[in-house]
User: What shape does this take?
Amino acid sequence: MQKTLRNRFRPLFKGFWGTAAFLLTINPALAELSRMPLHIGGGNVPGNMFLVPSVEWPTINSLANLGPYTPAREFVGYFNSRVCYEYVYDEQESERHFKPVSYASGRHQRECSGYWSGNFLNWAATQTVDPFRKVLTGGYRVRDTATETWLEKARHDNQGGASIYPNRRIPEHGSDASLVSGATPFNASSMRMRIHGLGNEMRFRLEGEDVSSGSTYTGGTVGPGQAYDLSVRVSVCVSEFMEGEDNCVRYANGYKPEGLIQQHAEAIRFSVFGYLNDSSANRDGGVRARKNGSVRKCRTRTAC
Assistant: This one.
């Protein structure tokens, strides 16, 4: 019986070892690996991507743009570095935002006169998680209508405090009225800013260092002597000022910012895994993850 089985499978074994010997002779340098995910069923089955981000409070609360401010360098964030912005005040805090009004000027096309420089606002107010959100999803949307999109900076809850998001200053030392007037609507020799512990706001003070407390900024120009608080949210993908905003995509009634997830939504299904920082002895086992799903695309829908 054993001899019969051996004779029956001998051709199969010969074929297997012959194939193995052939593969061993292939030069590894000539073997090309696919740069794209392998699919089954002729490629009609969408791929699955599981994101396992390490996003703890230092990633959220630390500053994204290092070094002193200079218009010679482009800083990342939700604002367009080549656009000037006006601060729109409203009695309702959720309506306060920056709106684009003109393109910047100057040698590096990042200076403004009488308005806020988008490049400066990126440097002053961007937390590390903001570029992360922008690359993946286009940014954190707080207003998302058919014709308008506002992005809001990450909330700073003061974990880590000034040790990971220190108070900033322009210029870094001394006085420089031209630097301040090219970055803000103000004529002053210096400006101090604070982000930590202020949620979605930024506090600033002209020609002074104390930013421990502040009053609500209502727009326009102010003088030295006290600090002011403003809300950091911005209207994006405005059709007249999209030069430099290469992530704006045409929808039915306007443009919307997109990230890598939206760009690949038709080919990949996404899931996010995380952990719950719970030291309670009453919790036993893991935390259930949300069901894997696809990202809805709606460029042709009037509601998007």
User: Anything to note?
Assistant: The helical segments are 2-24, 57-61, 118-125, 129-137, 177-183, 260-263.
